[in-house]
Amino acid sequence: MMEHCSTCRCAQRDVDGSVDGLLQVGLLNVPLLVPAGARALSLLMSDDTTVAHNFRQLILVLVVHSQSRIVDLTCASVLVPMGKPRMRVGIAVFSFWLVATPIASVGALTNAFTTSVLVKVQLCVACTSIGQVLNALCYGGYLLRLDWSDAARLITARANTDAGGTDARGTDTRECGSAHHDAGCFSPADADAARSDAIIMDESRTHNAGPAALQQSVWVRESIQ
Question: Which positions, given as ranges, span the membrane (predicted)?
């Protein structure tokens, strides 16, 4: 129960941190949405009024890019620890290569959508934003249906396994025992030492005992081996 509560508290801290990051990026984007802020930023980019005016038309796209970027990364950050890297790669391929890139390419290189050069430039800049928004929608839909308690336990178990070590097949090689309850799990070498200590202590107890105790010692040794 205590482990479950600790896991829940860690998960809650992660959620709070993600929300804080999203809010911080949003607050930093607020000045760019104000005409005065957009004008000041565009003038910092160039002294040419035409260049500054055209750049000002891209600021809204950059705001969407930064906001969708943080949502995309936040939602995707739990997939790899959960053992779903292929899912993350598959969604990224779908969003960027199969949807965002064709839309930006057709819109920028042809007149199928518009003949405005400015809109075509905006489509080029917004290509990444389109993919990130699709990523966030796919990840968000999956996370809404996720059992967060099971996910937290799975991530905790994988983290503990990575900290302790695995064999060539990916199997956890650590062993647990009451003798090392405070330490948690210990290595096979420690397990062998514990078995040897148990045998020695058993032999010392049966040194002055009768045949029945000696037979019991043999049974204990066979069970340990």
Answer: 89-113, 119-144
